[in-house]
Amino acid sequence: MRLYIIILLFILNPAFADEIDALGQRQLTTTRLQSTGGAGIGSLLLDEATILNPAALTFFNITNIYYQRSSSELKMDEVNQLRNDADYSNLFVLTDASGTLKGSALYSDFKHNNLSRRSIGGSISSAIGKVSSFGVSYLKTQFEGIDVKDQNTLTFGVTHVITENLTSGAVIVNPFSKRKEEQSIKVGFQYFYLSFITLMLDIGTKYRMELDKNFLYAAAIQFKIFSDFFLKFGTFKDQGENKKGNGIGILWAQPKLSFGFSINQSKNIEPTSQGNIYNQKETSFSVSYRF
Fold first, then answer.
1. CA neighbours within 13 Å on the CB side: how many for 139?
2. Phi, psi at residue 18, to the nearest 5°?
3. What span, in angstroms and rounded, lies between the C-alpha atoms of 260 and 229?
4. How far apart, in whole angstroms, are the C-alpha atoms of residue 23 and residue 14?
5. DSSP element (H, E) containing 18
6. Per-residue pLDDT of the chain (291 residues; tens, 9 = 90+)
7. How many CA atoms lie within 13 A of 129 on its CB side?
8. CA distances from 207 to 66, 182, 210, 216 (A)
């Protein structure tokens, strides 16, 4: 009966479908990932472990608290009518990588009009050699104000240090899911060049679907400015999620305290099932403290 009601709402009220599409545009991410276009699977990242590659935690030996505040503006072009929506989200990450078994916990909340989304998750990681590691993360997302089931994301990741300047990583997402559109595999590389330039590249696909229609890539470059500033640029295209865009960001990093700021702009590659084109601009600020 609920399915019939939802179908009827789609037919009688296209705006209901628009809300689902709009909510889907906002993906859980961090300030750093926004600036790099999402690239970083092969990087040694701390705060991103739960949502990107949990295996990277192994290469840290610290405890860290991370907070992020993001604002997003979504523009929808529907039959030459422009609609603007602004929303805000919070992200908290607590990481303990001081022991043999590394772990992190995450909480995020997000609101869009009368809809809301709340995510909780965690990750663990352990070494499988001197230069390799394995990790697992789990993320549960709940929706309110809309009849959408909870989303569960299970990610297995590996990280390998190839040389002092080159690292690699790979993740497989939801390998046990019955829905093939939820399953994906991604690999990434990071190369440290000339002591102040970092290059990142990720590629992937939804491996149980048509590969040429679900291919994704993300590429980024980072410049170290002076001794504690990092400037980042990134671009991405994800055919499976029907999105492409670019990002820019800056990070001020001290031994214990860091501040980050980023701007990410994206839009649909093709119109959605409702015939709409979304243009999104997301601005994010983050602070982290290590001890």
1. 26
2. -60, -40
3. 10
4. 14
5. helix 14-25
6. 433 333 333 333 444 444 444 554 567 899 999 999 999 999 999 999 999 999 999 999 999 999 999 998 878 765 545 555 567 899 999 999 988 889 999 999 988 777 788 999 999 999 998 999 999 999 999 988 777 788 899 999 999 999 999 999 999 999 999 889 899 999 999 999 988 999 999 999 999 899 888 999 999 999 999 889 999 999 999 999 899 999 999 999 999 999 999 999 999 888 877 777 888 899 999 999 998
7. 7
8. 33, 10, 8, 11
Residue 23 corresponds to which tokens in the numbers above?
A: 């909510």
**Bridge partners (DSSP) listed for residue 280:** 74, 266
Which residue in the block uniquely carries the two structure tokens 């705060």?
Answer: 47
How far, CA to CA in Å, does 157 sit from each of 52, 169, 185, 193? 8, 7, 10, 25
Please give the model's pTM, rounded to 2 decimal places.
0.86
User: Using the 8-state DSSP alphabet, how is residue 131 labeled?
Assistant: S
Distance of alpha carbon 184 from alpha carbon 200, whole angstroms:
19
CB pairs under 8 A, 24+ apart, for 42-45? Answer: 42/159, 42/167, 42/168, 42/169, 42/187, 42/188, 42/189, 42/190, 42/200, 42/201, 42/202, 43/167, 43/169, 43/188, 43/190, 43/200, 44/159, 44/167, 44/190
List of residues 6+ apart from 210 with CB closer than 8 A: none
C-beta separation of 74 from 84 below 8 A: yes
How far is the CA of 222 from the CAs of 230, 235, 265, 279, in angstroms? 7, 12, 18, 25
Q: What angle do CA 64, 53, 248 make, to 5 degrees?
A: 75
